[in-house]
Amino acid sequence: MKQAFSIIVAAGVALLAALSLGCALAQADPLPSWTDGTAKAAIVDFVARATTPGSADHVAPAERVAVFDNDGTLWAEKPVYFQFMFAIDRVRALAAQNPEWKVKQPFKAAIEGDVDTLAASGEKGLVELIMATHTGVTTEAFGETVADWIAAARHPRFERPYTELAYRPMLELLALLRANGFKTYIVSGGGIEFMRVWTDRVYGVPPEQVIGSSIVTRFDVENGKPVLVREDKIDFVDDKAGKPVGIHKFIGRRPIFAFGNSDGDLQMLQWTAAGDGPRFMGLVHHTDAEREWAYDRDSAVGRLDKALDEARAKGWTVIDMKRDWKRVFAFEPQ
Amino acid sequence: MKQAFSIIVAAGVALLAALSLGCALAQADPLPSWTDGTAKAAIVDFVARATTPGSADHVAPAERVAVFDNDGTLWAEKPVYFQFMFAIDRVRALAAQNPEWKVKQPFKAAIEGDVDTLAASGEKGLVELIMATHTGVTTEAFGETVADWIAAARHPRFERPYTELAYRPMLELLALLRANGFKTYIVSGGGIEFMRVWTDRVYGVPPEQVIGSSIVTRFDVENGKPVLVREDKIDFVDDKAGKPVGIHKFIGRRPIFAFGNSDGDLQMLQWTAAGDGPRFMGLVHHTDAEREWAYDRDSAVGRLDKALDEARAKGWTVIDMKRDWKRVFAFEPQ
């Protein structure tokens, strides 16, 4: 019986170890890059209420849908949207084949790296650059071009890959939600095929949970091989009032958790807020010029004006980046 | 020590019970409604190859994407697509408010239950009925109308709810794939908002895994409440060459497993077949007039002609309903 006794003791020790590990995990801070303020408390409280069986605010796992804007919410968006930087680099790479671009705006500005003129060309300029550089190729070839660029390109201020400009506190938040049975989606005005190449690796968000703006694709058979060709035509603009439309089209459920950072996210937040049961609406307010950038009502990129007023009026959670985030990027010294 | 010994014995018994239950589960036929023929063997073999670690054909779980057409593949589609029956019932329900319909085709035929004239009006007639009866309401109100209809309506031949005309062998196949880490999607020419109301309950396919044809929706605020309004405009036709486009748009991954039943599924099957690694392409061939229907090359609804030739030429799996399915519907006597 000595052996049996040893087995029981060993089992007991293992059980105690498992229990204490469980407690350690339960007690570990899931949001270490967030300061202990009201924003963090609101998130932790919401997740607890939505996931505690028997709670009046309990939400069935299938309905735990969380949506996040991308530019300015999950990664930075200055000096301009990173997809704009990609388009500029594509213009340069294709300039030799398109000599007319040297004297034609906004292509001229792109070739010369004149970001101010480009920014002034606004959404119209961006669309022109994207149409000229993102179309006429197969979806496969386009994906490869994005993958090459995202691996090689460097952000002008931080001189690091753009993907390192993902916000560490938001990566923690995504992980916390997923660990609690939430399905995390990106709902961005950016191009769906630009994002899907790298969102799984960077955010843990797989392609089928990325919603974005798109251009029309056409099924074709080239040399006996079926392909999808990207046409010179906009399919869907997933911004502003387009965001609830995109959510309904792709997910078919109303989110219970939504995070944005600009007026482009207002309707997504309103749509989320209007559902029954517990809701969380959050905004990232860029208040930290030293570690990141400070901007809101007067910014051409990521303008936050009406949504900020509505968030304050309705008690949505507004993250003050400077106050609420201990670290912004993973590469910052601790 | 007697107590300790008892605990060990009890643990041993529990372990043996768990192991034998495991074996019983492993040995149970996951496809009991399928006869033991080449079709069933091809499915079981494919699933084993794709999921066996170390197999040359092993596929990572995230890439185990399986797509299914709906009408004629997962449920019946005769005498006409069931959504057509829904549209007819909606025309009747709304006829009093639209007196002009009494003398205007295809509405007149719908009101009079003249299915032949309706079938002859083809896709154009269907679109007209759908536009007149599926739009101008909020997505929420439309979903409720579908839910009410699907609960109350009865199929003219079988006098049962339409959802009972789901094919039992295909329900088993969906369950087998999901048990093996596949994500099962519907990719249908039918309306996405018509299907999403009931696919989770009937097929175990949640709304976010349903891809279908859609009409444009518009975000609006009515009496302070955000709503999505269904507009009188087609957004996307998820049929024929539209199916690979829809798959790429919604999933962003190429399926490794695809099942259809008509020429409308040909491009989806070609797109699936053209990927690297193990592939499964299947067609349901309706050969059983007694238990269901028999039709292929000459049918207006669910025509199977070119896809049948291509399946035979390329060795895709063609299900002969009469031969390969022991039971078609769950309500059949065993």
Q: What do you see in this structure?
A:
Chains A, B: Residues 1-28 form the signal peptide. Chains A, B: This is HAD family hydrolase. Chains A, B: GO terms for molecular function: hydrolase activity. 2 copies of one chain form a homodimer. Chain A has 334 residues and is of the alpha/beta class. Chain A has a domain at 31-78 and 163-324: HAD superfamily/HAD-like (Rossmann fold), CATH 3.40.50. Helices cover 43% and strands 17% of the residues of chain A. Chain A contains 14 helices and 8 strands. In chain A, strands 1, 2, 3, 4, 5, 6, 7 and 8 form an 8-stranded mixed β-sheet that branches. In chain A, α3 (82-94) packs across α6 (122-133) and α11 crosses α12. The longest helix of chain A has 26 residues, at 2-27. The first copy, chain A, is globular and about 65 Å long. Mean pLDDT of chain A is 92; it is low at 15-24. The A-B interface holds A 1, 4-5, 7-8, 62, 139, 183, 192-193, 196, 200, 206-208, 210, 214, 217-219, 221, 225-226, 228, 235, 241-242, 244-245, 248-253, 267, 270-271, 274 and B 1, 4-5, 7-8, 62, 139, 183, 192-193, 196, 206-208, 210, 214, 217-219, 221, 225-226, 228, 235, 241-242, 244-245, 248-253, 267, 270-271, 274.
